[in-house]
Amino acid sequence: ELGRLIALQWAWEELVHDLQRERTALAERIQLTEQRAVQASAAAAREHAERVSVLQAQLDAMRATRAWQIAGRYWRVRNQLAARRGRAARP
Predict the structure, then answer these.
(1) How far is 39 from 81, CA to CA, in rounded Å?
(2) For residues 80 and 2, what is the distance between their CA atoms, to the nearest angstrom?
(3) pLDDT per position as a tens digit, 16-63
């Protein structure tokens, strides 16, 4: 009977050690996955910021053109004339 109890105790201890190793491996995988997620998020934020910067530069260049300035003046005059006539102009 003592031999069976000792064998059972060893089996339980081996099971505990196996589960602890698995838990450690899972914790390491979770940590690595979280690090990758943070890196991916940071990369996406950088790409978004770069895209916004490029789009802003394109918009600024477009607004600096003579055609844009003429169109802006046209809409201002059109709205002023429409306001004088008592109706709102649609852009």
Answers:
(1) 55
(2) 103
(3) 999 999 999 999 999 999 999 999 999 999 999 999 999 999 999 999
User: What count of other Cβ atoms lies within 10 Å of the Cβ of residue 42?
Assistant: 10
Is pTM, for the whole model, over 0.70?
Answer: no
**82 φ, ψ to 5°?**
-65, -35
What are the distances in angstroms from CA 20 to CA 5, 9, 14? 22, 16, 10
CB 79 within 8 A of CB 89: yes
What gap in Å lies between CA 53 and CA 55, rounded to an integer?
A: 5
